Amino acid sequence: MSLLTIGTVAFDAIETPFGKTDKIVGGAAPYIALAASYFTNKINLVSVVGDDFPQNFINLLEKHGTNTEGLQIKKGEKSFFWSGKYHDDMNSRDTLATELNVLADFDPVIPKSYQDCKVLMLGNLTPTIQQTVIKRLERKPQLIVMDTMNFWMNIALDELLETLKLVDVLCINDSEARQLSGEYSLKKAANKILAMGPRYLIIKKGEHGALLFGEDQVFYAPALPLEEVFDPTGAGDTFAGGFSGYLAHSEIINFGAMKRAIIYGSALASFCVEKFGTEGIIGLSQEAIEARARQFTEMVTI
Amino acid sequence: MSLLTIGTVAFDAIETPFGKTDKIVGGAAPYIALAASYFTNKINLVSVVGDDFPQNFINLLEKHGTNTEGLQIKKGEKSFFWSGKYHDDMNSRDTLATELNVLADFDPVIPKSYQDCKVLMLGNLTPTIQQTVIKRLERKPQLIVMDTMNFWMNIALDELLETLKLVDVLCINDSEARQLSGEYSLKKAANKILAMGPRYLIIKKGEHGALLFGEDQVFYAPALPLEEVFDPTGAGDTFAGGFSGYLAHSEIINFGAMKRAIIYGSALASFCVEKFGTEGIIGLSQEAIEARARQFTEMVTI
């Protein structure tokens, strides 16, 4: 019973009000895999990199329980590169550079050993590739979670809407929920989006927590007020990884299990933003994660 | 054991994406008094209006348990008037007109019968007037709650900081907390502001809920995702009224009681924004309020 995840594996160069990095490892998939690794040790990764990608990071993923058989390494080509600069409020950012490189003609190959898939986590990528992965699985996974973003709503809405019909959980932020539904009220937005296909909708609100809609219920997970937020990059992917990793290990997958999964996803995301890149979610102890998750539940307890 | 509140009593003209009003009754004090009336029936109001103010609204306040002996009615003068237009996101607004009128030389008079005061709720006003009210009370109330805004931070910061030393609870929004403290992290901001005088700090985050800091603890109250938000005007005042009204009736005033008070304040505020002006918080049943408060606590329950 494994977690299959697809997403970018990339280099990022990040500038925040608190500092600046050279090229460091980024992309959705490393965050998802690392965060999931605290809950399940059967993680299968599908992605593509160039031969400029550091073998020691692949080793690190393997050490964190990730099978990288599905990670294509393209000889003589370069990995996907993204560079961005956060504004002072850390809630918005400018993209300075996007070099697709190997991603331009990425054709996801699912190794035979990946076919026994309980949870499929589709990291943010072109909706067409996300759909291809679903179709290349021989059996429908118990749960398909899809992350996406406004960029695809702008340039590939039809493909996105098609893919949406095939997934169980959609994970987007509040402005994306408003864009996709055309509704300002998040409650109305949720109702419209749930009618587009997914049975559950997670609306991420960054420093304001997250909402889960589904089974005619609403759950509100708070965000922990943190002393330091150094770098929001990957927080959403980390959240998705903690969420899907927790559910891959869960006996029952329903609204109740998803509530707990969201708390753990939020806890992991809170570790992520305290350091640059993936640094904050490497080598965490189970005790530290449990203590952080307790803070999330205690903070809302009357 | 009563609640004493001071705040503007005014006319508002409001435009939101959903509609437009002519002059309707507004100002901080009517929202505070109406919201508080669901928890305590001993509300003493200090404010000033012109003789253009409708007697039937004063009667309505009286019917909702508010003593208006301290409401000065200035013959031949006009009431305070504010006009504003909300942007499409409803989180920001432009002020179109502000006519101080009677407020320009307001000198708050505290009737003898108001002196037995358990909770003092200082609605948003010039910090100097807020301070005058504190000094005109013969005995220090058990709890002094102060609402203020960025406007006073910009033009009367010294007076605001002086008043802050005299209060127990400060109630501001997230951008104001950042402005007042010079810190982006709300946790750091809270630590700095608590060092300025108040023992408790409430940070209102509108559609994202509210945070309470104090006694080395943090509490996060969610906001209910609503189908309709027609008019955010007065939501903060309603929250403050529900909060202070609940505490005026509470046997013990501590962090635990404040958590419950914030839930009730949030519940009342959620009714407020569903209609224009004060309409949403007039004539509510106790059952409706309890049911709404239950939604707030159930929404965060694992």
Q: Which terms summarize this structure?
A:
alpha/beta, five-stranded mixed beta sheet, homodimer, nine-stranded mixed beta sheet, UDP-N-acetylmuramoyl-L-alanine:D-glutamate ligase, 10 helices, 302 residues
Question: Can you walk me through this structure?
Answer:
The structure is a homodimer of 302-residue chains. The first copy, chain A, is α/β, with parallel strands linked by helices. Chain A has a single domain (2-298), classed as 3-Layer(aba) Sandwich (UDP-N-acetylmuramoyl-L-alanine:D-glutamate ligase). Chain A is 34% helix and 26% strand. In chain A, strands 6-5-1-9-10-11-12-13-14 form a nine-stranded mixed sheet, with helices on both faces. In chain A, strands 2, 3, 4, 7 and 8 form a five-stranded mixed sheet that branches. In chain A, α1 runs parallel beside α8, α3 runs parallel beside α5 and α8 (235-249) packs antiparallel against α9. The longest helix of chain A is centred in the C-terminal third of the chain and has 18 residues, at 255-272. The N and C termini of chain A lie far apart (37 Å). In chain A, 50% of the residues are buried. The model of chain A has no long low-confidence stretch (mean pLDDT 96). Chain A binds chain B through residues 17, 88-90, 184-188, 190, 205, 207-209, 211, 218-222, 225-229, 259-260, 263, 297, 299-300, 302, and chain B through 17, 88-90, 184-188, 190, 205, 207-209, 211, 218-222, 225-229, 259-260, 263, 297, 299-300, 302.
